[in-house]
Amino acid sequence: MTDITEHLSSVRERVRKAAERAGRNADEVTIVAVSKQQPADAVQAAYRAGQRHFGESYVQEAVPKMDSLRELDTVWHFIGRIQANKTRPIAERFHWVHTIDRERVARRLAEQRPFYAPPLNVLIQVNLGDPRKAGVAPEEAAELAAAIAHLPRLALRGLMTIPPAGLDERAASTYFARLAKLRDDLENAGFSLPDLSMGMSDDFEAAIAAGATLVRLGTSIFGRRAARPEPSPDGLGDGRLTAAE
Q1: Is 170 among the domain residues?
Q2: Domain with 114 in it: what CATH number?
Q3: Is 175 a member of any domain?
Q4: What's the pTM?
Q5: Percent of the residues in the chain that have a pLDDT greater than 90, as a whole number
Q6: N or C: more exposed end of the chain, with fewer CB within 10 A?
Q7: Who's near 223: CB < 8 A, 6+ residues apart?
Q8: Total structural domains in the chain?
Q9: Is the peptide bond prior to 138 cis by the omega test (within 30 degrees of 0)?
Q10: Rounded distance between C-alpha atoms, residue 56 and residue 103, angstroms
Q11: Residue 237 pLDDT more than 80?
């Protein structure tokens, strides 16, 4: 797994340089290593190289992996689509959820978060105009943020988005800037939203320039993998391909 160590070193250097160009500190940017479809030993290799934050999209894949790695002080991020009837293991096992786009889902996560666990860190997924993606419309984000802010077992941390595939750097930058402006507008309305989850392996440097604090990187750390449909009906999702990383 020496390739993972080398890839992480390269990614960290790219994050550092991107932050520097934007006049930011690299410590402001958390790398979430997207470990979906990766074996536990790949996660262990990344952990040994200093990586602590990992992203998963499929609960039925993630839970056994978490169990096998329970001795590690990893921070788990759920970055996949959420079905309202599949929220309990997410509420119980994850530290972050990036993909809330319905009040019903938020309420179920809050109700099912164990009393002994700290509040679940959550982000609102915003759809900026891609019909293939999930997410709340920008004009509906404030209403959802207000609903989440009143749920005691959730800690609203910010916004997340997934741009359409195939954008060039300029187009991706515009997309990320729109999410950053929406966050600023919501903060001006009284919400505290310190985090922006945006940027993947092909565009994370543009996302950092626009203010990303969480970048979701899979390919650039673990290498290419074959696309797979989200499991259905016993998993999360509706059978369409995911694009969280």
Answers
A1: yes
A2: 3.20.20.10
A3: yes
A4: 0.91
A5: 82
A6: N
A7: 3, 7
A8: 1
A9: no
A10: 22
A11: no
Query: Within 10 A of 89 (CB to CB), how many other CB atoms are there?
Result: 16
Question: Is residue 234, in this structure, part of any structural domain at all?
Answer: no
> What mean pLDDT comes out for the span 97-110?
97
Amino acid letter, residue 163: P
Tell me how far apart the alpha carbons of residues 217 and 236 are, in angstroms, rounded to a whole number.
21
Exposed, middle or buried by CB within 10 Å (0-12, 13-18, 19+), for 143? exposed
The CA radius of gyration of the chain, in Å to the nearest whole number, is 17
- Six-digit token string for 193: 């939203």
- Residue 228 in domain: no
- For 180, the token pair is 């950053």
Q: How far does the chain reach from its first CA to its final CA, in angstroms?
A: 20
